[in-house]
Amino acid sequence: MNAYLRRQRGSAVVEMAIIAPIAFLLLIGVIEYSLVFYTTLVMQYAVREGARYAITGRTDADPATSNQQRYLAVVQQIRNNSMGMYDSVSPVISVNNTTYASSSAYSATMFGGAGDIVVLRLDCTWKLATPLIAALFPNGQYKFSVSATMQNEAF
């Protein structure tokens, strides 16, 4: 056998062992970066649908069958349209520049009355898993806000 061929034997395995971790890290980074944009778009859609529901004054989306509340119905509508991302992004809800950090802070009048302008905003946090991408963001978290502004209908 040729001496040159004997020296080349196994070089492909060594090259693959060096390049594979970098290639897989980049691939996973691209996938996670795509998830960041997908999550932002999904939450934008969910907040818009929540605002559309809020301006009608309806309460039928509230999971409680008795004593249905408008604010709980709006949050449920956002949750229903978030494709399962609502709990993953830990949203903080703001209505007309008033922040509601927990569901106990919600009030019956937070969306206003007929003809009022409603600005619904969610401040979201997405925890990044890939070290390559997480290093680009403070604390390895991607923070974003989505909002929708609409006028209440006459209800």
Keywords:
TadE-like_dom; transmembrane helix; alpha+beta; transmembrane; 155 residues
Decide which structural class fits the backbone.
Answer: alpha+beta
Uncertain runs? none
- What spatial form do the alpha-carbon principal axes imply? rod-shaped
* Amino- and carboxy-terminal Cα gap: 89 Å
**Radius of gyration, in angstroms, nearest whole number:** 24 Å
Strand content: 15-25%
SSE order, one letter for each helix or strand: HHHEEEHE
How many independent structural domains? 1
By DSSP (H or I, 4+ residues per run), the number of helices equals: 4
Largest sheet: 4 strands, antiparallel
Helix % is 40-55%
Give the neighbour order of strands across the main sheet: 2-1-3-4
**What is the total tally of β strands?**
4
Mean pLDDT: 88
Protein name: Pilus assembly protein
Domain TadE-like: 10-52
Transmembrane segments: 12-38
Keywords: Membrane, Transmembrane, Transmembrane helix
